[in-house]
């Protein structure tokens, strides 16, 4: 039998030590489990918050994308039912931008008409209620008119006399009063210095602006007529804008005394020449018309043919004659001109077909010293100059002229 080298006491000590070791090992596992639970808690508390979905603006563009045959006077509008409109750009197929603005409510509206027969592109940038940016685009076309109306601003770029009104003349009638009113609303006259005046329609083709009194010499007149997109008839629309203006020259005013057979010419209030004349002989078709006329045009030589004023060849009173130094004052055939054949009657009797006859030297002087817009005031005949027979704005009192506006 082999003897235990440790003996009973030593074995008991080892058993106890082993028991203590197991207990210590058991005690060390609990803190490890607690750390795992804490890590789980920490991971749970650090989970990311879900990102909310962006909210873009909701925008409506009128006219709608791909619309066709849009009336040129239709307003272009951009509105946001959600969020807000930031910028709007509307351009035609020529790259010209359509003016407009954003109002206090945040809506964009065009401030002028569109051109007919054009393609427009609308580009919008907007912002949602959460700041989300967005863009939107639309494209549409305006109608092609049956007739494209045209017009001009008469005498633009010229120096004219003190009686010349601003005249916007259409190639055909502006058919209704509301259409004429729309033209007036868009057309503007700016003068330097400022002058009181008014628009009025001489007829349905001619819109004119005259000052209360004759212009002051040196006045500068600027005309703006942005009329593209204006409707002038059932199928007529204006195709483009026009602008112009003129400068006022000396105050050249001539006074024709029909029974006295004289014409007194003044410049800036001073008499510079008194000319013997012969006016139209008595009769409903020949007597020179009384009234305040304006020189319409100057022509050094013309053929006067009575057939152009309703007296055909072969009729009593028919004439056809070459004349020089002609100053037209009516569309019905009245001129101031040279008439060597009536020199003996000039200053003593009225023998013409309605014109104011002068001797050749006086007619040439008058021609060289006159311009379109100079005033010719005729008195003493029994026949009255009608406003539409020439530039007849001065046949109205200023109050009556204002009544010719389509806005009243």
Describe this structure in words.
With 408 residues, the protein is an alpha+beta fold. The chain has three domains: 84 residues, Immunoglobulin-like (Sandwich); 103 residues, Immunoglobulin-like, CATH 2.60.40; 143 residues, L,D-transpeptidase catalytic domain-like (Beta Barrel). It has four helices and 26 strands. Strands 20-19-18-26-21 form a five-stranded mixed β-sheet, with no helix packed on it. This is ErfK/YbiS/YcfS/YnhG.
Topology, please?
Elements: H1 7-45, E1 58-62, E2 77-82, E3 84-92, E4 100-102, E5 108-110, E6 119-127, E7 133-141, E8 147-149, E9 151-153, E10 159-160, E11 166-170, H2 177-186, E12 188-192, E13 197-203, E14 206-211, E15 220-225, E16 236-238, E17 242-248, E18 252-257, E19 262-267, E20 270-276, E21 291-294, E22 297-305, E23 320-328, E24 335-338, E25 356-358, H3 360-368, E26 375-379, H4 398-402
Parallel strand pairs: 8-16, 10-17, 18-26, 24-25
Antiparallel strand pairs: 1-2, 2-5, 3-6, 4-5, 6-7, 9-11, 11-14, 12-15, 13-14, 15-17, 18-19, 19-20, 21-26, 22-23, 23-24
């Amino acid at each position: 039998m082999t003897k235990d080298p440790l003996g009973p006491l030593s074995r008991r000590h080892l058993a106890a030590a082993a028991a203590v070791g197991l207990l210590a090992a058991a005690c060390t596992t609990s803190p490890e489990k607690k750390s795992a639970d804490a890590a789980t808690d920490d991971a749970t508390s650090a989970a990311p918050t879900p990102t909310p979905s962006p909210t873009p603006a909701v925008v409506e563009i009128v006219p709608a994308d791909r619309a066709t045959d849009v009336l040129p006077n239709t307003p272009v509008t951009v509105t946001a039912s959600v969020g807000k409109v930031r910028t709007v750009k509307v351009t035609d197929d020529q790259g010209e931008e359509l003016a407009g603005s954003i109002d206090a409510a945040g809506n964009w509206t065009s401030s002028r008409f569109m051109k007919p027969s054009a393609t427009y592109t609308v580009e919008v940038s907007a912002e949602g209620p959460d700041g989300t940016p967005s863009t939107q685009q639309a494209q549409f076309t305006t109608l092609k008119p049956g007739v494209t109306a045209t017009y001009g601003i008469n005498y633009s770029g010229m120096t004219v006399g003190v009686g010349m009104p601003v005249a916007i003349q259409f190639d055909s009638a502006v058919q209704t009063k509301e259409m004429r009113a729309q033209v007036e609303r868009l057309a503007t006259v700016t003068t330097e210095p400022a002058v009181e005046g008014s628009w009025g329609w001489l007829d349905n083709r001619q819109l004119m602006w005259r000052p209360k009194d004759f212009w002051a010499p040196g006045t500068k007149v600027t005309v703006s007529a942005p009329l593209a997109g204006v409707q002038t008839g059932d199928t007529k629309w204006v195709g483009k804008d026009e602008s112009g203006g003129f400068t006022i020259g000396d105050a050249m005013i001539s006074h024709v005394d029909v029974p006295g057979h004289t014409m007194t010419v003044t410049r800036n209030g001073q008499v510079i020449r008194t000319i013997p004349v012969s006016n139209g002989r008595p009769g409903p078709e020949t007597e020179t018309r009384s009234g305040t006329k304006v020189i319409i045009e100057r022509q050094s030589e013309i053929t006067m043919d009575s057939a152009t004023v309703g007296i055909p060849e072969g009729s009593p009173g028919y004439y056809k004659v070459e004349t020089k130094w002609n100053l037209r004052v009516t569309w019905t055939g009245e001129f101031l001109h040279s008439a060597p054949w009536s020199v003996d009657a000039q200053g003593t009797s009225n023998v013409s077909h309605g014109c104011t006859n002068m001797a050749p030297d006086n007619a040439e002087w008058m021609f060289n010293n006159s311009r379109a817009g100079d005033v010719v005031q005729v008195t003493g005949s029994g026949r009255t100059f009608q406003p539409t027979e020439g530039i007849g704005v001065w046949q109205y009192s200023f109050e009556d002229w204002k009544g010719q506006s389509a806005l009243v």
